[in-house]
Design a protein that fits this description.
Elements (H helix, E strand, L loop, with lengths): L2 E4 L7 H7 L3 E4 L10 H10 L3 E4 L2 H5 L10 E3 L5
Length: 79
């Protein structure tokens, strides 16, 4: 099952909708990471096997210096 971590700019209301589609999702605020640096969010995602869903992939791309990671999904629009 895919595990998605929704960045702060993505509506947490999508967590339930994604669950109906068979995906496990968690939002950054619900994970206790609201206002945290992208580096902390990325570490949480790596530690918990989440692909990060974000509207600002540029910040995360700079952190792709690991051998294996669950994924990075870029959304051009979050509404």
């Amino acid at each position: 099952m895919i595990r998605l971590l929704l960045d702060e700019h993505i509506s947490p209301s999508l967590v339930g909708k994604l669950a109906l589609m068979g995906a496990f999702a968690q939002s950054v605020p619900h994970a206790g990471l609201a206002g945290r640096a992208d580096r902390e969010i990325w570490k949480y995602a790596l530690d918990h096997d989440f692909a990060v869903v974000t509207t600002n992939a540029r910040d995360f791309i700079e952190m792709l210096n690991v051998d294996v990671y669950p994924g990075l999904i870029y959304c051009a629009r979050a509404d």
